Amino acid sequence: MMIALPLLTTDAAACCSPVTGGVLTSDEAERIAHTFKALGDPTRVRLLSLIAASQGGEACICDLTEPVGLSQPTVSHHMKLLVDAGLAMREQRGRWAYYRVVDDALDRAAQALRP
Amino acid sequence: MMIALPLLTTDAAACCSPVTGGVLTSDEAERIAHTFKALGDPTRVRLLSLIAASQGGEACICDLTEPVGLSQPTVSHHMKLLVDAGLAMREQRGRWAYYRVVDDALDRAAQALRP
DNA sequence: ATGTCATATTGACAAACGTCGATACATCGA
DNA sequence: TCGATGTATCGACGTTTGTCAATATGACAT
What we know:
Chain A is 52% helix and 13% strand. The first copy, chain A, has 115 residues and is α+β, with helices and mostly antiparallel strands.
């Protein structure tokens, strides 16, 4: 039986011993893989680039559904995964949920590849 | 119905417009995601780090099965995915298949995150 | 030629994933 | 308070993924 415990810190924040800097422990590999798994779907990559290119570097779900051509629940789901991985952050303002890219997280992920 | 066509160039080689450098096309997002999907499994991340840390920067399947604790076919399968993504390369020498990390591919992947 | 050894491929299976429609939740304006 | 609107969650589904045992392939030594 598997139990999913909530993480106190997002993955990308805890990341990242470099992949090529010595043998990684299972835990380190797990954290790194979790971050990259979030980047391993074309829709999510596209979402990040759309948000980053938006006015003020932020976008709400309603701005994103049409460009990616998927349903609102699906986009919401993908954004949740990106937030869980620490690659995006969410801010509720009124009825809208605004999302931003966490550049620091991208930096840390890059550091895991190019130490 | 899905048909998988062989790629003439490996993904990581063709990569990568930066994620945060303007809206990506579906094709660009697809290529980037394909690279990161290969990095999105803890076993594969571990394999890369094991190979990079090996004598001469190379390792054969037989060197890898025990450390990751998985069967030989499974390790072979993972290595195939890494090679397909351009993150590793394979060289047959006698009975053994030696694998190396393609540092350039890691660099390019990192560039997609931190332009 | 034959046997042995390292690796790849096949077939099968459970688990995880991406997607949607339907619905619940939250927030604002009237 | 009520309806409208943006978002999240739920339940379901087909597909993809990770894994293994069994088997095939290829290379060397005898």
